[in-house]
Hints:
The complex is a heterodimer.
Chain A: E1 4-9, H1 21-29, E2 34-40, H2 46-58, E3 63-68, H3 71-84, E4 92-96, H4 98-102, H5 108-127, E5 136-138, E6 142-146, H6 150-161, E7 165-169, E8 184-185, E9 190-191, H7 192-205, E10 209-212, E11 215-223, E12 226-233, H8 248-252, E13 258-259, E14 268-269, E15 272-273, E16 285-286, H9 292-296, H10 301-305, E17 318-324, E18 326-329, E19 333-335, E20 352-354, H11 355-362, E21 383-390, H12 410-424, E22 429-434, H13 444-453, E23 458-461, E24 464-470, E25 473-480, E26 485-491, E27 493-498, E28 500-502, H14 506-513, E29 540-542, H15 552-570, E30 574-576, E31 582-584, H16 594-598, E32 604-612, E33 618-626, H17 636-640, E34 646-648, H18 653-664
Parallel strand pairs in A: 1-2, 1-3, 3-4, 6-7, 6-18, 7-10, 18-29, 20-27, 21-22, 21-27, 22-23
Antiparallel strand pairs in A: 5-30, 8-9, 11-12, 12-17, 13-14, 15-16, 19-28, 24-25, 25-26, 31-34, 32-33
Helix pairs in contact in A: 1-5, 2-3, 5-18, 6-7, 6-15, 11-12, 12-13
Chain B: E1 12-17, H1 21-30, E2 39-44, H2 52-60, E3 65-70, H3 81-99, E4 106-110, H4 116-133
Parallel strand pairs in B: 1-2, 1-3, 3-4
Helix pairs in contact in B: 1-4
Amino acid sequence: MQRIGVFVCHCGSNIAATVDVKAVAEAAKHESGVVFSADYQYMCSESGQDLIKDMIKEHKLTGIVVCSCSPRMHENTFCKAAAAGGLNPYMVEIANIREQCSWIHKDMPSATAKAIVLVRSAIAKVTLNAPLTAGTSPVTKRALVIGGGIAGIQTALDIADAGFEVDIVEKEPTIGGKMAQIDKTFPTLDCAACILTPKMVEAAQNDKIRIFSYSEVSAVKGFVGNFTVTIKRKARYVKEDLCTGCGLCTEKCPQKKVPNEFNLGLDNRRAIYIPFAQAIPKIATIDPDYCTMLKSGKCGVCSKVCSAGAIDYQAKDEFIDVNYGAIVAATGFNPIKVDKYDEFAYAQSPDVVTSLEYERLMNAAGPTGGTLLRPSDRTHPHTIVFVQCVGSRESEDSTKCGKSYCSKICCMYTAKHAMLTREKYPDTDVYVFYIDVRTPGKSFDEFYRRAVEQYGVHYIKGMVGKVTPEGGKLKVQASDLIAGKQLHIDADMVVLAAAIEPDKTARPLATLLTASMDTNDFFTEAHPKLRPVESPTAGVFLSGACQGPKDIPETVAQAGAAASKVIGLLAKDHLVCNPCVANANEMLCSGCSQCEKVCPYGAITYSYKEFRMPDRTTKLRLVASVNAAVCQGCGACTVTCPSGAMDLKGFSNKQIMAEVDAICK
Amino acid sequence: MQMNDNTFRPKIVAFCCNWCSYAGADLAGTNRLNYPADVKIIRVPCSCRVNPTFVLRAFGRGADGVIICGCHPGDCHYTSGNYYARRRMTLLFSMLDYLGIERERTRVEWVSAAEGAKFAQTMNSFVETVTKLGKNKRLEDLRCKK
Lengths: 665, 146
């Protein structure tokens, strides 16, 4: 017979304000098997946990029910307390009377009645709990970082620094990401390349780091500590080990009309190219969409000029399998497409640019060599209008492609652009139209005020209504909300601070990793405050803007945090496995192999076993057995099994039925 | 749960998968999004753990509505569990039709860990539907009443 203890938490007033905790504790006393029931202010506090330990000993409890917050919050805490009291940690059940009761119901009688039902159902379940022992699984001491931007590079460097091997998978031919395209960084105005490229070199030279550039993750198998990842190494038609990065081929290639994505199509590159001078690895890549040799079999210039013999037109995509203990997603962001915003005439005039394009126009390594020139006629612009929040902070029901969230970085980089423009070209008039200026960061507000006060940038609260290209100018119609009047500005250039969105590769990657995403396709963290760099999927961590809009300092901080979580995981030799796994009752198993087919992990195998029959003969029968180290405990097999031989420890058929009965009573 | 004899309150059993929908329900709580207290949640590791017999058992024991919530298709923590759940429940629906239990009393919904609002909204609409249908009397004879 079970001896159950029930502990009802007040959680200060979080539970006690809407649930009559004393009545719940009293009601629990009358349930069968309950020998102790009490309420307490804060069960998760040290004294609350001590109460659990003491009562387990005093009343010789065989199982406990804690009525408190969600098990996602404190189940572990109470399991540990129970273990410290000498009880098997799996003899604990949580009745979630906070998130799923007191916080959602306002009326005390109905909330209390519901809490009693929830407690009753937890008691019914714990009565059928069996002590479980967790097994262990080994940890592969190698980490994978997906994405080679500043987030991925920093994460990899920090992991390698702790002595663990780490691989970076980057889909582009070079690492560096968005930061490589940026000219200067706020609020210190140091040049992005000067602080990023040494890190890229450091990553390339670190013997613990392997960089798979021009590669993608195509399959992920396994679980925390034991992932097997299939990496697709896209054919770059250049042998990586032979190419010296001399760049002769990129000068001789006759196909000159390829939009240069590194400069956002503001100029052209060749069909064989190295994205930028400091690219890592500095290896040429052939763009199969434009290469005449690959398309029609006629050309071969690059092969002729390459003295290293690195060109290989026959190259094929390669797939390699690598084992990892932990995976970090660092897939980053992209500005949204702004063509849909007809009012800003982005598609109509080349002089309407996005902020990232403006960044390239300001960059000394950019298409104009750092001289600010209008893309249309390559003249110097005298009036520039910046429009903030293009696609950010839009109402949910908007028909545009906008986002409801604040993209966070636009206020600051627009201030930076405005300031740099005024500094380089003091004869330029700079207008910034904003909804709010948001500068919550160290030295951020000072930076913005400098743009206004020292550099004389015209900040105007209001939105631009329409941009009309007319006679080589851009007629900007806008409203000044503070002065309460309409403005007409003849601008030479309009710069749109486009909202940022997660990279398009993030969604399919999340599916491969079984990591969850929010409605905007940002990765969800395990807990928004307490576990901000872990995904809810064990062994998968988050770094940088793939989790939410971030500036560079925040990205680097999060990258370091993710790395420290990875190091914490890889430092362990073994991980404790979830003991709530499936098990087959061999006496009931008919050997139909249905469960083997539905198991997503291949944890079920079939083998012949000898059974003693009632007539004292022996018989060989095919029966299922579950590999506890591989089983993840989803329970798919338990429902598939036609004879009821499969059951899931911790969530057995009997336990769930008992919960159903208790709720429906 | 019978509040008083005049107003009918349905008994609703909600099976929620641990990774998405249970977390979504927690989020509804964290955001203080109200839904009726008639909904009682049973946590299961995955929607594919829900045996159709659990649903039948609930109806047999007096539940007026059963809802199964899992991760969105493609987002299952165990890769494919919710697809199994969807298929099994589709079969169960035709059996429930055969038993004469109104189709609206059973529902399968996908609620992610980020969709607290959707969880509350789903529960509100489900409770409303079941309340309109009234007491489930079809399997009453099978109930084991003490």
